[in-house]
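Chain and backbone:
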Amino acid sequence: MKKILIVRMSAIGDVVFASLLAKSIKLSYPNAKIYWLIEPAAKEIMECNPYLEKVIEFPKPQLSKLLKEKRLLKLIKEFFYFIKQIRAYKFDTSIDAQGLIKSAIFTRLCGANKRYGFRSKEFSHLLLTDTTDKDGEKEQFASEYYHLIKFMKTDDSVLPKLHLCKRFHQKAQQLIKQHNLQNGFIAIAPFTTRPQKHWFISSWQELIFMIYDKIKLPAVILGAPNNNQDAIEIIQNSQAINLCGQTTIGEAAALISYSSLTIGVDTGLTHISIAQMRPTIALFGSTVPYLKTHNPKAKIIYHKLSCSPCRKHPTCNGSFDCMKLIKPDEVLKSAMELI
């Protein structure tokens, strides 16, 4: 391995998990130059990683705009121009760390002769040369990526770790000063992509009041701009601070690195907190939780039901009983133990 392209374009949590690949390869092949292909939404998580030569940004917004405008000829032209740019690096090895047809296409088209990756239901593995199942110890944090590392015979002693850019820490420190958070705060990450992974707004409201009453620390809600309305509802009549839409993902990650505790659902910011070795409480329901982490200050709350995990296909008609079983006083108890 001399010049390597890792393809893991999204989602943020999985990019965090997969980050251990870069260090693993660099320890095994010190002279290797490692590149990472990623979508813009997750770029900030990897762009200052010291084990990477460069982070290559996939122009998804531009291509999506052309597709929406039905400018297909221009879309095809731009896509193959991007492929030409990737091939100019002359990669000898590529790694599909996503296991989807979209990631395997780039793993194949980059020009590398040696192509590692996962077998998948989409048959993306047919574009690769060396494949393995998405296996590993299911309860372990980043299990499938450890399995891939062992399959490639690179160093498996590494841990996921974020290396955030200095500018993100500077922004986080500004926010801490602006909102008088120097004496500590609890980061709240209540938002994710699927409704069955959410905890209930009423539960968050109750927990925030209990935290301020028992722990005497302010809660800070983190999320994207489209989460702002729910965040406003969560913090109503409380002293919590709503920062939804006021930070980029890199800035939110840096802010979490200064937190006293993070409480979140199965979402990227929660995984970021665990990877940064911060005290963390992760609330799981419809998805398979990693019950074993490298972070001794991480607490996983999960009440398994006969229908668990339903993943993307809930059978409860929107009642989300697995999340309903998680009570605010249970979370508060864990919070007090961790703090």
The longest strand covers residues 33-38. DSSP finds 14 helices and twelve strands in the chain. The CA atoms of residues 207 and 213 lie 10 Å apart. The mean pLDDT is 94.
